[in-house]
Amino acid sequence: MFPIGVQLYSVRDYAEKDFFGTLERIKQMGYDGVEFAGLYGRKPAEVKEFCEKINLVPVSAHVSIEEMLTDPDKVFSDYRIIGCKFIAIPYLTEDRRPGGANYENTLIQIKSLGEKARLHNLTLLYHNHNFEFEKVGDKYFLDVLYETVPADFLQTQLDTCWVNVAGEDPAEYLKKYAGRSPVVHIKDFVMKDRKATSGLFELIGIKPSEEKADEKDFDFRPVGYGVQDVPALIKAAEFAKSQWLIVEIDRPCLGLDSLECVKISVEYLNGLK
User: Fold this and answer.
1) Do 147 and 107 meet the contact criterion of CB atoms below 8 Å apart?
2) What's the CA angle centered on 134, arms 130 and 135, to 5 degrees?
């Protein structure tokens, strides 16, 4: 079984009020590591010291491509100081996707960022949603991205929820990128049908509807409480020689708060060991 981390965006409501206290609670739940989504005003050296104190591994961080491009040396240096080995592009705006004005330039920029990340002893990852499964010619955009940018400069961070939502088997997609999938997002969900739209994408700032959770077309779930075949995903990650599983829950569900959701997720995963 892999070491298990959590994407801090999952508990952002707690982290913004008490960043270090939230890290400590995550460690106490049984998590081995953490993936950052901002530092909430804390200095990198402070974060490094605290993580060492509680023995919580700083695995990676989600940083927007715009922030990386604005000052890549500072971004990469900060997260390297903390001790991260990976840094991920979490999302691309529409203008950066196929057909957008900045699409071609974005591919060049991602390669450039991957090269610079290597100079800081970091590995650049790309975290997908489901829009990357739109076709560019006869190939998915996600595959075009990984074909265009060499593996030396870009590794995958497959979000298994969005792969599934797109209609592909996330376990098979992990196997497809064996040797290039060091950090895997384990995310669970429920969905009435593949044309469902309500409830998606709070992570990227699109607010969900005001429907009750059980009435939504789509909703997130703690790991092990949705439709994902988690044991199959773990086997696929083993085949792919992945290094970390990262739990991500975009918003609380089932009447639980965010910390409760990530707690029962790691309990479920640890129960599979």
Assistant:
1) no
2) 150
